Amino acid sequence: MPRTLPRAALAVALFGLIVATAGPLSAQPTKKTLTFADYDIWRATSGVALSRDGQYVAYLVGSEGKDGEAVVRHVASGKEYRFPRGTVSALTARPQFAPDSKRVFLPLSPTKGDLDKAKADMLKTEDYPKAALAIVDLETGKELDRIVNVGTYQVAGEGSGFLVYRKGIAALPPPKKGPGTPPQPPATGTTGTDLFLRDLSATVERTIPEVIEYNLSNDEKTLVYVVASKTAAKNGVFAMNPRFGTAAAPVKGGPGRYTGITWDEKQTKLAFYYDDSQVPPTNLAPPPRAVGPNPGSIGTGIPSPNAPARWRVFVWARGITGAPDEVLGATVPALKPNWQLTGSGLSFSQDGTKLYLQTAPVRAPLTTGFDDIQLDIWHWKDAHTQPAQKINAARDRSKTYGAVVLLDTKQFRHLSDDALTVQNPGTGDWAVGTDDRKYRHMTGYAWPVPADYALVNVRTGETKPLMAGSAHSVGLAPFGKFLVGFDGKDWFTVSVPDGKRANLTAKLKEKFFNEEHDSPSDAPPYGITGWTADGKFILVNDRFDIWKLALDGSSAENLTKVGRAQGISFSVLRPRSAEDRTTERGTDLTKPLLLGAENLTTRDTGFYRLEPGAAPKLLLMGARGYNVAVNPANNQFMQLAPVKAHGADVYLLTVQTFSQYPDYYATTPDFHELRRVTDLNPKVKDYNWGKSELVKYTSTDGVPLQGILVKPENFDPAKKYPMIVYIYERL
């Protein structure tokens, strides 16, 4: 019989038995007792990579504050190559494979031994061992080369491919003093470093000096880079085919500062900022010579290094010869008085017709005197409490606001300010604007804080009120023809721009809000899992199944059908290769889909395949977590899509239980066989670890609940143990 417990006192309990007090059974081999001294022996992975042919896996492994390793493993045979490296946090880059899967590139940081030796030898800081990129032959495990002090790198191309890498940013030397000093490069405090292009088929390398930014197009046929040189005349934005034998062509060059290179989604246009505030006029006459015993200050005609940036925006059409198009000049007539472009936040709309950027008011430098006396006065209706205002003061002083350039007319328009925040629309001219000023004082006792919503035409500035004081937000659906929102009970849409509202789920008996939500606020929805590729349907979840809802409210279809009957919660998973840089827009329901699955009764997880028009087909299910990780957005567990090999039907995923570390396994699309790839913490077998057990009980008010009982590996049911109870109502 299930145990009955008071629901208010104990609904879901995590029973943690103190393992340290549990002695081993006489019939079992003695294992170590886990103590705090063992904390730092447990290892974790980072940067896991799968070769294009799916035959090799490379990863970085280590424990906190200790030297680690870079490991390369052949999946089928289990053959491994290991390379020592420093701590896990010393280098954030991940391993990468050559396109032909014959070499691997491993980021290696100096080991503690290397650093201790350098210290003992009293080396200068600049002579200490540096992070390096090791190039390893996969067939032999031999290290072919080691490139020292690599900052960022990328492997691309076909066949042997090519390697693009840049070394660390160098600090700008102090400016020279004296008459005739030329204007210094942009006031960024840095110049570029060498950018290297290596042909991996012949180990031929090309060096491009003083590069500060670079970007490789998704088709890997155009490399764009920014030069910030000590010689200002060499500055500029340049483009080249990264294949050898082609020279770089200037997109725009000459003195000034260049930054923010940004492709549109189709990779046909490139936008960037240019600042000429430090460039003297070309027609400036030589400065007059000072005369007399005390001539005072004589102007040199050289702009002050403290002069504000004068940003301009250019758009270059890829493959078109000629100068880039200046879409915003040094003077922007529509820019508000005492406002400026910030030189940040460039992005194209999804359809490539608009360019979004950031603006801000010109703010005077913050000055405080020694005898300044400050008086803080706060009213209960202020938007934020006084402590919050102090905490957010620095952020508020650097706050930026969205704006747009219409590329067909080169018209500039402010979008957001302190009164209205406008979401950048991906397609079309209509956007969603929110204004929460009247409701900010409710922060702390109203959640979510209400806001007024309106439709804003980014081309004309026209505004149409939508909802006043609403705690339910809305967002644009793909193609910009509908707004989608959830009102606490049902999904609804608002057609754009006429404002016609349609309830998508009112006629369905299933609930689309979290039925177990127990906070004093509206229950959140189970969520959106995607959109169809044609933009006509939204895919949403109820507690178990996935639904296809027409945005105009004309139809609703349960795609997974069997979830509720079988107690299984489904989610759509989209396996991708880390090398796939294309943007995925929408879900193609004419093709098979991989589904993640969790049985909400047994807590088993697994995978299903959904063929068009059919019920989901079971691939794998078991009492373990398959590719389960913590969602950083809400700190809850979620199932992730496996990583797919770029050129083969091989998937990589983790498998874990309470007593099994989430090691990596390789499999094929049918999930019939899982081949173990890593064994990161084999020492767990030496310890009296623990086992977990799902328990069921009923609260005093008749609600069936679940808990997890965790007990020592050598648990003796005839003994009594101390117990820790962690109380929370739901698993």
What does this structure look like?
With 731 residues, the chain is mainly beta. Strand 52 (691-699) and strand 53 (704-711) form a beta hairpin. It is globular, with a radius of gyration of 31 Å.
Broad structural category: mainly beta
Report the radius of gyration as a whole number of Å. Answer: 31 Å
Uncertain parts: 1-27, 170-189, 293-299
Approximate strand percentage: 35-45%
> In this structure, how is the largest beta sheet organized?
7 strands, antiparallel
Major β-sheet strand ordering: 11-12-15-16-17-18-19
Present the secondary structure layout.
Blueprint: E1 3-5, E2 12-17, E3 44-50, E4 56-62, E5 68-74, E6 80-85, E7 96-97, E8 103-108, H1 112-120, E9 132-137, E10 143-148, E11 150-156, E12 162-167, E13 170-171, E14 190-191, E15 193-199, E16 204-216, E17 223-227, E18 236-240, E19 249-253, E20 257-263, E21 269-275, E22 311-317, E23 325-328, E24 339-341, E25 347-348, E26 354-361, H2 386-391, H3 393-397, E27 401-406, E28 411-414, E29 421-422, E30 430-435, E31 451-457, E32 463-470, E33 474-476, E34 482-486, E35 491-495, E36 501-503, E37 528-531, E38 537-541, E39 546-550, E40 556-558, H4 563-566, E41 568-573, E42 593-599, E43 605-610, E44 617-622, E45 625-626, E46 628-631, E47 636-639, E48 643-644, E49 651-656, E50 663-667, E51 675-676, E52 691-699, E53 704-711, E54 723-728
Parallel strand pairs: 1-52, 2-53
Antiparallel strand pairs: 2-54, 3-4, 4-5, 5-6, 7-8, 8-9, 9-10, 11-12, 12-15, 13-14, 15-16, 16-17, 17-18, 18-19, 20-21, 21-22, 22-23, 24-26, 25-26, 26-27, 27-28, 29-30, 30-31, 31-32, 33-34, 34-35, 35-36, 37-38, 38-39, 39-40, 41-42, 42-43, 43-44, 45-49, 46-47, 48-49, 49-50, 50-51, 52-53
